[in-house]
TrEMBL record:
Pathway: Carbohydrate degradation; glycolysis; D-glyceraldehyde 3-phosphate from glycerone phosphate: step 1/1; Carbohydrate biosynthesis; gluconeogenesis. Belongs to the triosephosphate isomerase family. It comes from Labedella phragmitis. One of its GO terms (biological process) is gluconeogenesis. Its main location: cytoplasm. GO terms for cellular component: cytosol. Gene3D superfamilies: Aldolase class I. This is Triosephosphate isomerase. SUPFAM superfamilies: Triosephosphate isomerase (TIM). It is found in: Cytoplasm. Keywords: Cytoplasm, Gluconeogenesis, Glycolysis, Isomerase. It catalyses: D-glyceraldehyde 3-phosphate = dihydroxyacetone phosphate. Substrate binds at residues 12-14, 180, 220, 241-242. The gene is tpiA.
Length: 262
């Protein structure tokens, strides 16, 4: 039986674009996709702006009734309290965020977030009604030492422990060696790891969760290579970094169905 998971094309802006630039970008993205007659029911589009942009994006999306989803790039494992500089999932929920990225490789490496922290943040997201986009991936050293899926599988297993089987999650496989390198994984490599990650979801959350959970690929995704990834049965979209800051390039990635062969 064919599985119908709506692809998710997610643009992670990282620390780029202030709130005024964010408004202009989302407006232009919406216009570009409308002009191209993009079907948002066939391929979901989401952007992940910096925290300072979220209120502006929320207001624009609501006022113009845009079909573009949005989320945050991180959240605190804590609900509230003396945690200077952190952002609670409760705050993000009040901004109508749908998603939040958790465990991105830059958080893991630059902010020393380990699997335990990622698991706590994943639980916090679910608690506040946010869909966590749980990032997993291996370095070049990990790849050589452990093979292509061992590290991502271990990371995801820890992140999902304790979640209810009904939890709505997204998994993003981002090989650290591919991020920003211009050298993406091959579709076969992405599929191999995505299939192993789906098995982890099945093992911990059950068959129904494994069937519905979307698994994204991230790492030097471009309009010229997205079609190859999207042909793979276990790849359900992409988490896009640098290319998501170019409206024309991002919109071309979003419209991958125009150039995916049958």
């Amino acid at each position: 039986m064919a599985v119908n998971r709506v692809p998710l094309l997610a643009g992670n802006w990282k620390m780029n674009l202030d709130h005024l630039q964010a408004i202009a970008f989302v407006q232009k993205l919406a216009w570009t996709l409308k002009d191209a007659s993009h079907d948002f029911d066939a391929a979901e589009v989401a952007v992940f702006p910096p925290f300072t942009d979220l209120r502006s994006v929320q207001t624009l999306v609501a006022a113009d009734k845009l079909s573009i989803a949005f989320g945050a790039q991180d959240l605190s494992m804590h609900d509230s309290g003396a945690y200077t500089g952190e952002i609670s999932g409760a705050f993000l929920a009040q901004l109508d965020c749908t998603y939040v990225i958790i465990g991105h490789s830059e958080r893991r490496t630059l902010h020393a977030e380990d699997d335990t922290v990622v698991a706590a943040k994943t639980a916090a997201a679910v608690k506040h009604g946010l869909v966590p986009v749980v990032c997993v991936g291996e370095t070049a050293e990990d790849l050589e030492k452990h093979g292509p899926s061992a590290v991502p599988v271990a990371q995801l297993r820890t992140a999902l422990e304790g979640l209810d089987a009904g939890a709505d999650i997204v998994v993003a496989y981002e090989p650290v060696w591919a991020i920003g390198s211009g050298q993406a994984a091959t579709p076969d490599q992405a599929e191999q790891v995505a299939a192993a990650l789906r098995d982890v979801v099945r093992e911990i959350l059950g068959d129904e969760a494994a069937t519905r959970t979307r698994i994204l690929y991230g790492g030097s995704v471009k309009s010229s290579n997205i079609a190859g990834f999207m042909r793979e049965p276990n790849v359900d979209g992409a988490l896009i970094g640098g290319a998501s800051l170019d409206v024309n390039e991002f919109s071309s990635i979003v419209r991958f169905q125009k150039h995916v062969g049958v």
